[in-house]
Amino acid sequence: MLDDVDLTCEAGEIHALVGENGAGKSTLAAIAAGEIAADAGTIERSGRIGLVHQHFALIDRLRVWENVVLGHEPQRGGAIDRGSARAFVRELGERYGLDVDPEAVVETLPVGIRQRVELLRELARDPGILILDEPTAALSPSEVERLFGTIALLTQRGVGVLVITHKLDEVFAHARRVTVLRRGRVVEERPISATTREGVARAMIGGEIPAIPAHEPTHGAIAVRVAGLAVPGAIENLSLQIATGEILGIAGVEGNGQSALADALAGLTAFRGTIERPHSIGVIPQDRLLEAVIPNWSLLENVMLGREHATSAKASWRIDRAAARAQCTAIVERFDVRAASIDAPLSTLSGGNQQKLVVGRALVDNPAFVIAYNPTRGIDIGATATVHTELLAARNRGAAILLISFELDELFALSDRILVMTRGALRGEFSERRFDREAIGRLMVSA
Amino acid sequence: MNRESAKALAIGTFGVAAAMSLAMIASHVSPIVGFNAFFYGAFGGKQEIAETLASTTALLFPALGIAIAFRAGLFNIGAEGQLLIGGLLAGWIGTRIDVPPAIAIAAIFLAGAIGGALWGAIAGWLKAARDANEVISTLMLNFIAASLALYLVTGPLRAPDAAGPELSLLPHAYWLPTLLSHTRATIALPIALLAAFALRYVLDSTWFGYRLRAAGEAPEAARRAGISLSRVALWAMAWSGALAGMGGAALVAGELHRFNTQLSPGYGFIAIAVALVGGLEPLTICIAALAFGALESGGLALQAAAAVPKDAIHVIEGLLVFALAARRYLGARGAGAR
Known about the structure:
The complex is a heterodimer.
Chain A: E1 14-18, H1 25-32, E2 48-52, H2 64-69, E3 75-76, E4 79-80, H3 82-96, H4 111-123, E5 127-133, H5 141-156, E6 160-165, H6 168-174, E7 177-182, E8 185-191, H7 197-205, E9 222-231, E10 235-243, E11 247-251, H8 258-266, E12 272-276, E13 281-284, H9 288-292, H10 299-304, H11 308-311, H12 321-334, H13 351-363, E14 369-373, H14 381-396, E15 400-404, H15 408-414, E16 417-422, E17 425-430, H16 437-445
Chain B: H1 3-26, H2 31-43, H3 46-71, H4 79-94, H5 101-130, H6 134-154, H7 188-205, H8 207-217, H9 219-224, H10 229-256, H11 267-277, H12 282-306, H13 310-337
């Protein structure tokens, strides 16, 4: 997994550790934090090394303060001193700008807040070094800003912060040094000032970034027509149209009705108003593990999910295993899914490869309409390029595509037209590929 | 048999053996003497083997039904009631028709399946239409089934010649042929084994089975893939009940030769343990049913020979269900967190 890795994180610096999925970043973090043992080598440290996991290691049914003090509970007369535990958690939150209600039960909290709880738990133990594993993967842009605000406070107090990420924007905006890991080896380590974004990207993937095919402007007929759409509690009176061969990008901060829009268009939620859309549809859901796949199942069985008609040519009640295998193999090859076998459990694949399979499943039958919701969230550069290339190829074949994304870069790279969604309504239309980052950003946060 | 179900089977076997040893020691019986009596009671002769096979059959039908529901993510603990209603309809049909024996037996099993399916479908429908918790509804339907059956056999359907709360005796020609003469081991056993193979085929090789497993494994992903969770709940509970109901029919036509309210001494509950020990895999469940069948008949012998109360066996079975259910629950949560 890791081979002869040297890494130094100094007090008071932000050090970025970058690399593709499967490069060994999380393993390195777990070794540094003492969660797993290395086969060889040494770790020197001043103070505790704290680790904030990508997939939070919280006890969902306990309260925030209980999670934070777990293992070193303040005691009084043999019992937990709840009063001082709560006060401690509240005070810690105020000191680092991490507001959380200490009384809230963790499972009721959204992802961004849960991360604050993880941070508080590590900060409660006064670490010398704090490692954050993919801390921004599930955060909205404003939450990302807040997080880096907290990180800045930490470095001012002399804590060294190691941020694991594959988002180069964040690396270049905040880090002082960067270490690039590829296939378990350090391939580059230098100050940010002595490197370029392209250089780091090349080092990460060990070659050139695949080029995305050019946009050929198309002027197709209207394929998707939404008028007066209303979903209770999320959307009021929304209208939009998507032409064949067009990618319509929806920009916006998470929680402004994007999920309701995607679900209404996919036929998964009740709505008022009219939706006219092609029958054949491919959906790339927002939450891969919860909504798109069954992790314990094989690639083969996952590819069959939602594609019964495509997989059973003859008898409709019986699964045509041979056809399903052929189709799965075709998807794996065409979409560059790297797996030991199509019978391997999906959970053994990296996130990027899982997502390529999800995208392949959505696009393989050449649907006339595609809904892509954060199609590259949390996956590496190589897989992102594959997904973007395939979405553009689908567009060039004449599909109408609704692209909902929280990443402006992704929207700018793919969209023919961008609308901004806030509080369940669409506003501002940016077309002809003249996208104004500032104007879109302003609309995203306007009320 | 996959690794998970093999593991469940191994843990079950070992746990039961260990717990039985403790029960014997607590009753001041040497485990060597005790296990000797136990194994003689379960497999010692033609009659003993037949008793084991009869209990195996009685457990296998409802256990297969329970596996269907569990695989669909539905905690059906109403097999007892479904078995009873299936047996009631089977026993009633058996006294109302006059056809060649083969057709009569088929009709009796079909009636059992329909009765159980209807009873199971009530809980399925409540789940689908009203999102009623199936644990509560199936549990309550057990009591309703028992009361309904008692009312019908003491009232409207009471046999004129009956001594107690029971239906008339089936014509002798409709009794299930035995596998071993003068015993309770009947052709219901091969029918149950056939059902196990059929269920395995349905789960692995049909879209119905695929949808059912997807709904049980990952309901949100299944819903988004266009699988109707309501329809799965309804049909899974109906088929679950159908198999339990066939178990009732087998008891009626094979053992009692009539319906009465004492049809099942709790087979529908023990079958939950059988299904879990069998890892919810049809073929492994057959092995688990044999093990529990042996526990039933061997346990009786143990009581007679060594004065270890048969209730101790039931306590052990209960602990086993508890352990496996806890393991399943914790295992599922562990996998979800990863």
